[in-house]
Amino acid sequence: xxxWGGRFKKAxxxxxEDFNSSLGFDKTLYYEDIQGxxxxxxxxxxxxxxxxEECESITGGLNSILSDIENDVLHIxxxxxxxHSFVEMNLIERIGQVGKKLHTSRSRNDQVAVDLRLxxxxxxxEVIEDIDALRDVIVKVGxxxxxxxxxxxxxxxxxVVTFKHHIMAYHNMLSRDKKRVENAIEIxxxxxxxxxxxxxxxxxxxxxxxxxxxxxxxxxxxxxxxxSDRDYVIELLSCFSIMMMHLSRLSEELILWSSKEFDFxxxxxxxxxxxxxxxxxxxxxxxxxxxxxxxxxxGSLMALLTTMKGIPLAxxxxxxxxxxxxxxxxxxxxxxxxxxxGMLSSIKIKKENTFNAVKKGFLNATEAxxxxxxxxxxxxxxxxxxxxxxxxxxEKDKAIxxxxxxxxxxxxxxxxxxxxxxxxxxxxxxxxxxxxxK
Length: 438
Ligand code: ARG
Known about the structure:
The structure is a single chain. This protein is mostly helical. The protein has three domains: 14-104, Fumarase/aspartase (N-terminal domain) (Fumarase C, Chain B, domain 1, Orthogonal Bundle), CATH 1.10.275.10; 109-147 and 155-195 and 218-351, Fumarase C, Chain A, domain 2 (Up-down Bundle); 361-432, Ribonucleotide Reductase Protein R1, domain 1 (Orthogonal Bundle). The chain contains 18 helices and six strands. A two-stranded antiparallel sheet has the order 1-2. The protein has a two-stranded parallel ribbon with strand order 3-4. The longest helix has 37 residues, at 108-144. The relative contact order is 0.10. The structure holds arginine. Arginine (ARG) is lined by residues 22, 26, 82, 108-109, 112, 315, 319-320.
C-alpha cells in the first residue's frame, strides 16, 4: 500500500518493495510521527489552509490511531512502505476523504526529519538520566569504600591511592559524557518541519508555530540542510562511542579486579554467570558484555559517517540507513548504563587484599625519596638510593617500612626515625595535594 503511484504503469517488484520498506524499524517513530502531524494540522488551520473542522477531524483520527497503537488494538504491520504511510493510510481509512488533506504542504522528507529529531531529543534526555543515576552510584560506592589500594601505571603497582579516588575518575568521565550529550541536544534543537521536500512551499505556512508547538528553539534556517541533516544522529553516536569507551575501561578493571590474580572485588551473583563445564567458575559476563558491545556502537558511528559522506543535497534514500544503527546504539547504551549501575552497586571491595597489594608493591618508594629530598638530597640522587633499597627489600622479601633504621642508614645517613611516619601509607595521603585522594 503506497502513498504514490499515479505516474507508474507497472507495479513495484516484490523484491524492491521489501528492499525499500522501512516499516519494520521506523515503527519505533510512531509517537513522534503522530505528534508531528498534529502540530502540522494545527498550524494549517491557524494559517487558514485547513478549516477548523478539518483540523479537528484529522486530530481526532490521529489521536484514535495513537491510543489504539498504545493499547495494542492496532498493530504496526502490513505491506506499508514506512510508518508515515501507515499512519496516513490508517487515518484515511478512519476519517475518510478529509484525511487526505493531512499531507498538504509537507513531504515525507521534512516529516521523517522532524520525527527523528524529536525522537533523538527524547532519547538523549533518557540517556542523561541514566548517566546521572550511574554517577550517583559511583559516588555512593566511593564513599562507602574509602580504602587504600594500589594505583597503577603500565598495570604495575605505582603509588598508593584510595578506591574512592580511583572509582571517582569514572565519575569525572561520565560528567563530561553528560555535557557532550547536553551540547548535542542544544545543537540539534531546531525544527525541520516546513522545509517540505527540499524547497519550502508556496502555502503561507508558519514554521515558527510548529517549531514552538513541538518544543524546538526555532525552525532551521536552510531548507536543503533541514531535510538532509543527520549530524545530530552522528553527533550522538559519537558521544555514545566516547561514553562506551569509558564504560569499557571500567568493565576491564572490574574483570581484572574480580580475577583470583587481583582478588580486589567480588561481583554479586546477580550480575555473574557460571560455566557449563567448570563447576567452580563464576564469570564477570556483565562487564564483558559491556566491553564487547562497545564495538557495535563504534560500528554504528562509522556506518553513518560513511553513509553520509557522499550524499549530494538534499534528501536521498541512503539516509534511511540512519535508523537501525541509531536505534540499536540507543538500546545498547541505555542497557549498558543500567547494567553497569546494578553491577557496581552490588560489588564488595576486599579491603585486606587491596591493602596487602599496597604493602607488597613498594608504593611508598616515591614518598621515601621525597623524605631524603626534604633532608637536603637532590631528587635524582634520592631516586637512586631508594631504588637500591627496593632491590635490597626484594631480596629480603620485606617492605621499606619493615627494615630497620640501621639497615636504612647503610644506604644514606640522612635517614632518621621519623622516616617511618613519613612513609606510612595513610600519612602520605594526609599531606599536601594528596589529601584530594581521600
Ligand atoms: N523511510 C524514509 C527514511 O527513513 C522516509 C522518507 C522517505 N522520503 C522519500 N522521499 N521517499 O528516510
